[in-house]
Amino acid sequence: MLHISPGDPTVYGNLPPSSQSVEAVITAVKSSEHNGYAPCVGTNSARRAVSIYLSRDDVEPRPEDIILCSGCSSSLEMCITVLADGEKGQNILVPRPGFPIYQTLAECMGIETKLYDLMPERDWEIDLTHMESLIDEKTAAIVVNNPSNPCGSVFNIQHLRDIVALAVRYRIPVIADEIYDSIVFPGHPFTSMTAIGAPLPILVCGGLAKRFLVPGWRLGWIYVHDPVGAFDPEIRKGLQALSQRTIGSNTLMQAALPTILLETHHSFYDHLIDVLKRNAEILFENLKEVKGLKPFMPQGTMYMMVKIELEEFPCFENGLEFVKKMMEEESVFCLPGEVNLKGIW
Ligand SMILES: *Cc1c(COP(=O)(O)O)cnc(C)c1O
Predict the structure, then answer these.
(1) Is the CB of 220 under 6 A from ligand 1?
(2) Cα separation of 103 and 241, whole Å?
(3) Ligand 1 center–CA 155 separation, angstroms
């Protein structure tokens, strides 16, 4: 069986982590200095490393703006929990198609999710008219995932400005899932939402999983970007309190973090982009020759959306059946888009 479905870059062993990362963890273990509990929000040196790593385009986080978490999923959970309240009937807006975990996390807490559409014909930009139509007085946050899983899209600055302007107009904070921050192909530079310079409070979620090729190491972070002081003090305090539920993230990874983030060689990043782009191109070139399939060339990440023109395949009712048959006949397993449309996980 050829599994091309998981968002786990380690599955085929062709993309090992950098030697700096591996050595940093070994050193941390051997030192025996990191076997105890650390502060729940993370050690000072690890928080400082993330703040330096995220400094760019006039955005300069302070170490105290960073909270370390057990993977980016846990960052997302804390952000949704701190901003929205299920008991008050609040809702959050999430992308469709999108990463299903937003819905899973929100629904566990009784928080309603409203799905805003992305537009395939416009490089998967957000349909802002649709997004605006979903906003009501109970909307507590907007989740924006850029670069996008599963669309492989990277928003340009103008689109980011438009999204930010809408959020500012309705005074709704944003949860920016930027886990693929620098996994972008040439010609599609990544801009963080925080770099737009708007008076908008943003909780940025990121982590080691994808760019450093170590999802199992479970290290993520939240950057509290708050140019207007809207998160002061309740949201900051809330995040600190929530971090006490898990007693913080893995201390070995925290000890290794400064080396991983700040000393990884450029060649490691370049190689990753090279491999991902080359594979995306091979897949794209071949799939587009198949009558009835319309692949969308990604601008970054490690995903590709493929449209199935069902009128060309009268034997299939929907994409799910297509995927099932591909598994039975060709032993190739990819994810049906339905997973990203309705939150079936
Ligand atoms: C993989 C992924 C995450 C979760 O990352 P972890 O650090 O492994 O928890 C979050 N958001 C998106 C869009 C992802 O693809």
Answers:
(1) yes
(2) 23
(3) 18
Q: How many angstroms does the Cα of residue 313 sit away from the middle of ligand 1? A: 33
Q: Is the CB of 179 under 6 A from ligand 1?
A: yes
Backbone angle region of 71, left / alpha / beta, with phi > 0 → left and psi within -120 to 50 → alpha: left
User: The tokens 């025996």 sit on which residue?
Assistant: 32
Q: Whose CA is nearest to atom 1 of ligand 1?
A: 7
Six-digit token string for 241: 């309190």
Using a 6 Å cutoff on CB, does residue 149 contact ligand 1? yes
Q: What percent of the chain has pLDDT over 90?
A: 90
> Ligand 1: which atom is nearest the Cα of residue 76?
10
Q: Phi-psi bin for 19: left (phi > 0), alpha (psi -120 to 50), beta?
A: alpha
Tokens standing for residue 252: 């070995």
Q: How confident is the model at residue 342 (pLDDT cuts 50, 70, 90)?
A: low
- pLDDT score, position 344: 39
The answer for residues whose C-beta is within 8 angstroms of residue 309's C-beta and 6 or more apart is 292, 293, 294
Ligand 1 binding pocket includes 145 (Cβ within 6 Å): yes
| 215 within ligand 1 shell (Cβ under 6 A) | yes
pLDDT tens across 68-126, in order?
999 999 999 999 999 999 999 999 999 999 999 999 999 999 999 999 999 999 999 99
pLDDT of residue 343: 44
At residue 162, the pLDDT reads 98
SS3 20: helix
Q: How far is the CA of 129 from the centre of ligand 1 (A)?
A: 27
| Residue 41: both structure tokens together | 């929000």
Within a 10 A sphere around the Cβ of 158, how many other Cβ atoms? 9
Give the confidence band of 345 by pLDDT, cuts at 50, 70, 90: very low
207 Cβ closer than 6 Å to some ligand 1 atom? yes
